[in-house]
């Protein structure tokens, strides 16, 4: 018996070879009809034998292309039109958007095989791609994703490319960036002044310059990188000096997985991440074979590594003498990623020796994503290229909610129906360039996602730029959300935790409800509300932001505030070159002059790092805490220092004894790595003791615990806190699909707003009965 059905497929189904896949399925089962992209996803009209239709639907669900992600398949009966063939028809651009915007993907093995084949007409072509790989989000101008609405519109296809593009059986059928040496983008090599080098093979010449120790600016999929030979100490030092980046670790691109094994400890999970279509930077523990220049990651026990993810990258590694390249974002400190040619020439003057550029315009820049495996789970430092703007699904209607994030590591998040779209990593909103970049990307995604602007969600900190920025948008309502509640809610939603849970939030900075700076918190609640159950004892930050940039100030202030004259003596002994400044700090504290009070894990780490002489002045955000954590052997469980729990209105963790003992141990010349390990374990045991006290006080509270905040990137803390809590019967969750740092803040803000809106609606409905 024959019949007809209409099928709507929603999810990541455009730009991933989905229509050719549908065409081939229809041919396989001898079905007729049409397939079409539209603003709702993919529409299919199918006619044929009932058994064949059922087989088609089974394969549609279970054998879809590797880059696709089906969220929903809707099937309904249709009028039988007696269609005599199956065709792919032109996209429909009208209607309400439900599209999932396609993401950029690392070059696939099939394309690499062709690129390395001398008999193939795309031999050594640096822009080879197909429906399973290549640029997507970064080249899109408008939706739906068709070539005339991308930055490839200026490259008319040649006859050979056109033939593949129109062939439904070819893997390049409707591959929008399809190109070849005849008709596609081309690379050029420029001198430092922007003048083009007369070169027959710009890539080969670039390899030569890299081997000579030169610095190159290389234009990729999502922006510019600065590049040099990672085994050449002089080249790496030169890059650091020119970029004014003295200590922050530099990311490295390795030629192959076997090369990565010469650098770091790589397990199955790390191997899969490195070799995935997302091709992130993966943080690895250095191994004994590590042989890069010392200046790549000075003082670090870890290294950030990625594999080549574009054809151009692969071509740079054709010389076996180049196995490792520094591949770091080219943006100046504090500025957004560079992706426009004219800006690169302006900002990189004096830094780079050559520019390797191409003429395919980048419309939407994205940084490389950065991940690690932490206690056996995925841990995002930065979720960007390869993941953005792929949506999450939730069990609430989040339509019309737009969350603006915070001040640092900023992202924004947009809700539509039960989809949550987290935008690309933007950075710190500290200058007009980054703010403009933020607005540009937000405006584009708001247009593409096509959701009403009903509710804006912002951080409660009154000094964040986002407080002013939101006023430029016409929202019906604006909601403020406490910083660490957003962190907690993001993890609750990701793991679909029902009811209330404890939230252990270890963070650097978050504006508290009492006007102080929070960041070492234990909450109990859910996405709609929370109660603060415990926190770290407050200490002063004289000079506020200056204490963050110069951790020795924070350390001295803690010692003086907690131990008076004895603390001042300890500070003078440890920071002997700062005696005059210490007296000034003391007077500022006595007069409460330019003082804010904080109880945060980040500032605690900064203080201990400075006391131990690890980092007294930070050259980049988080340096003091990162360098201190790098000293800890995760295989050892250390003896904790003494600490206290103060029974106040809210249980308060007191580390005054610990800080004094650490200071005395430093003055006694004890091993700093042991001191760091003992400090880490003290933080763990203080949290466990606090949770034990709360469990005894509230025996009926749920035993679910979420961990979040930037300090949960710390491998020792996450592993030990999780193990200790599980030993006591708690279920423990940490973010795996969004960053635990402020990169995940906007996601949590949206979740809080949705929960509060839902709760308010329930109350309204109850009152109307």
UniProtKB/TrEMBL annotation:
<feature type="active site">
    <location>
        <position position="19"/>
    </location>
</feature>
<feature type="domain" description="YrdC-like">
    <location>
        <begin position="200"/>
        <end position="386"/>
    </location>
</feature>
<dbReference type="GO" id="GO:0016874">
    <property type="term" value="F:ligase activity"/>
</dbReference>
<dbReference type="InterPro" id="IPR011125">
    <property type="entry name" value="Znf_HypF"/>
</dbReference>
<dbReference type="InterPro" id="IPR036046">
    <property type="entry name" value="Acylphosphatase-like_dom_sf"/>
</dbReference>
<protein>
    <recommendedName>
        <fullName>Carbamoyltransferase</fullName>
        <ecNumber>6.2.-.-</ecNumber>
    </recommendedName>
</protein>
<dbReference type="Pfam" id="PF07503">
    <property type="entry name" value="zf-HYPF"/>
</dbReference>
<feature type="active site">
    <location>
        <position position="37"/>
    </location>
</feature>
<dbReference type="Pfam" id="PF22521">
    <property type="entry name" value="HypF_C_2"/>
</dbReference>
<dbReference type="InterPro" id="IPR041440">
    <property type="entry name" value="HypF_C"/>
</dbReference>
<dbReference type="InterPro" id="IPR017945">
    <property type="entry name" value="DHBP_synth_RibB-like_a/b_dom"/>
</dbReference>
<keyword id="KW-0436">Ligase</keyword>
<dbReference type="InterPro" id="IPR017968">
    <property type="entry name" value="Acylphosphatase_CS"/>
</dbReference>
<dbReference type="Pfam" id="PF00708">
    <property type="entry name" value="Acylphosphatase"/>
</dbReference>
<keyword id="KW-0479">Metal-binding</keyword>
<dbReference type="InterPro" id="IPR001792">
    <property type="entry name" value="Acylphosphatase-like_dom"/>
</dbReference>
<keyword id="KW-0863">Zinc-finger</keyword>
<dbReference type="Pfam" id="PF01300">
    <property type="entry name" value="Sua5_yciO_yrdC"/>
</dbReference>
<dbReference type="InterPro" id="IPR051060">
    <property type="entry name" value="Carbamoyltrans_HypF-like"/>
</dbReference>
<dbReference type="Pfam" id="PF17788">
    <property type="entry name" value="HypF_C"/>
</dbReference>
<dbReference type="InterPro" id="IPR043129">
    <property type="entry name" value="ATPase_NBD"/>
</dbReference>
<keyword id="KW-0378">Hydrolase</keyword>
<dbReference type="InterPro" id="IPR055128">
    <property type="entry name" value="HypF_C_2"/>
</dbReference>
<comment type="similarity">
    <text>Belongs to the acylphosphatase family.</text>
</comment>
<dbReference type="InterPro" id="IPR006070">
    <property type="entry name" value="Sua5-like_dom"/>
</dbReference>
<comment type="similarity">
    <text>Belongs to the carbamoyltransferase HypF family.</text>
</comment>
<feature type="domain" description="Acylphosphatase-like">
    <location>
        <begin position="4"/>
        <end position="90"/>
    </location>
</feature>
<comment type="pathway">
    <text>Protein modification; [NiFe] hydrogenase maturation.</text>
</comment>
<dbReference type="InterPro" id="IPR004421">
    <property type="entry name" value="Carbamoyltransferase_HypF"/>
</dbReference>
<keyword id="KW-0862">Zinc</keyword>
């Amino acid at each position: 018996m024959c019949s007809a059905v209409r099928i709507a497929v929603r999810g990541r189904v455009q730009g991933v070879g989905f229509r050719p896949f549908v065409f081939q399925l229809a041919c396989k089962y001898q079905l007729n009809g049409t397939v079409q992209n539209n603003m709702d996803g993919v529409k299919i009209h199918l006619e044929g034998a009932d058994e064949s239709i059922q087989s088609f639907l089974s394969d549609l669900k279970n054998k879809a292309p590797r880059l696709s992600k089906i969220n929903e398949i809707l099937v309904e009966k249709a009028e039988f039109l007696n269609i005599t063939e199956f065709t792919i028809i032109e996209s429909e651009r009208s209607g309400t958007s439900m599209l999932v915007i396609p993401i950029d993907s690392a070059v696939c093995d099939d394309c690499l095989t062709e690129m390395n084949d001398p008999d193939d007409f795309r031999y050594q072509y640096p822009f080879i791609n197909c429906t399973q790989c290549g640029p997507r989000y970064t080249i899109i101008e408008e939706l739906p994703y068709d070539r005339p609405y991308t930055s490839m519109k200026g490259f008319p296809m040649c006859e050979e490319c056109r033939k593949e593009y129109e062939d439904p059986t070819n893997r390049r059928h409707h591959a929008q960036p399809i190109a070849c040496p005849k008709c596609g983008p081309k690379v050029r090599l420029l001198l430092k002044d922007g003048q083009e080098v007369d070169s027959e093979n710009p890539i080969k010449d670039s390899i030569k310059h890299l081997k000579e120790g030169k610095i190159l600016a290389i234009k990729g999929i999502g922006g510019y990188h600065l590049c040099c030979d990672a085994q050449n100490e002089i080249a790496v030092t030169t890059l650091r000096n020119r970029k004014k980046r003295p200590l922050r670790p530099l990311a490295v691109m390795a030629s192959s997985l076997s090369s990565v094994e010469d650098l770091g400890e790589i397990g199955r999970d790390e191997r899969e991440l490195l070799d995935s279509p997302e091709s992130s930077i993966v943080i690895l523990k250095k191994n004994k074979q590590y042989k890069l220049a010392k200046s790549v990651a000075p003082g670090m026990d870890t290294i950030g590594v990625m594999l080549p993810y574009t054809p151009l990258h692969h071509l740079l590694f054709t010389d076996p003498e180049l196995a490792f390249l520094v591949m770091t974002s080219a943006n100046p400190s504090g500025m957004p990623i560079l992706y426009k040619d004219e800006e690169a020439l302006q900002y990189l003057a004096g830094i780079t020796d050559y520019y390797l550029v191409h003429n395919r315009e980048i419309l939407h820049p994205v940084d490389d994503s950065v991940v690690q495996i932490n206690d056996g789970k995925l841990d995002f430092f930065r979720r960007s290229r390869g993941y953005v703007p792929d949506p999450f699904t939730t069990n609430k209607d989040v339509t019309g909610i737009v969350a603006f994030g915070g001040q640092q590591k900023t992202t924004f998040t947009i809700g539509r129906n039960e989809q949550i779209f987290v935008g690309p990593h933007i950075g710190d909103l500290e200058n007009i360039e980054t703010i403009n970049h933020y607005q540009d990307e937000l405006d584009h995604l708001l247009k593409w996602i096509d959701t009403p602007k009903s509710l804006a969600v912002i951080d409660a900190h009154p000094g964040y730029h986002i407080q002013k920025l939101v006023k430029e948008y016409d929202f019906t309502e604006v909601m403020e959300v406490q910083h660490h509640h957003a962190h907690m809610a993001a993890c609750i939603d990701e793991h679909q935790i029902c009811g209330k849970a404890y939230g252990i939030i270890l963070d650097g900075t978050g504006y508290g409800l009492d006007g102080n700076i929070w960041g070492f918190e234990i909450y109990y609640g859910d996405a709609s509300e929370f109660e603060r159950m415990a926190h770290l004892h407050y200490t002063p930050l004289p000079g506020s932001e200056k204490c963050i940039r110069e951790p020795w100030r924070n350390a001295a202030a803690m010692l003086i505030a907690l131990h008076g004259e004895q603390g001042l003596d300890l500070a003078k002994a440890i920071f002997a070159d700062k005696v005059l400044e210490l007296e000034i700090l003391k007077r500022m504290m006595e007069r409460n002059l330019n003082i804010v009070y904080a109880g945060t894990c980040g500032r605690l780490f900064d203080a201990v790092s400075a006391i131990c002489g690890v980092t007294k002045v930070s050259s980049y955000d988080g340096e003091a805490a990162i360098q201190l954590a790098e000293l800890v052997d995760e295989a050892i469980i250390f003896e904790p220092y003494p600490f206290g729990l103060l029974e106040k209105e809210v249980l308060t963790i007191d580390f005054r004894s610990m800080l004094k003992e650490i200071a005395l141990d430093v003055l006694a010349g004890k091993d700093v790595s042991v001191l760091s390990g003992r400090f880490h374990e003290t933080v763990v045991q203080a949290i466990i003791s606090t949770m034990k006290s709360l469990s005894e006080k509230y025996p009926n509270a749920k035993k679910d615990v979420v961990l979040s905040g930037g300090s949960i990137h710390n491998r020792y803390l996450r592993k030990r806190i999780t193990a200790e809590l599980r030993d006591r019967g708690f279920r423990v969750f940490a973010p795996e699909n969004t960053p635990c740092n402020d990169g995940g803040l906007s996601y949590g803000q949206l979740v809080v707003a949705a929960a509060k809106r839902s709760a308010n609606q329930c109350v309204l409905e109850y009152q109307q009965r």
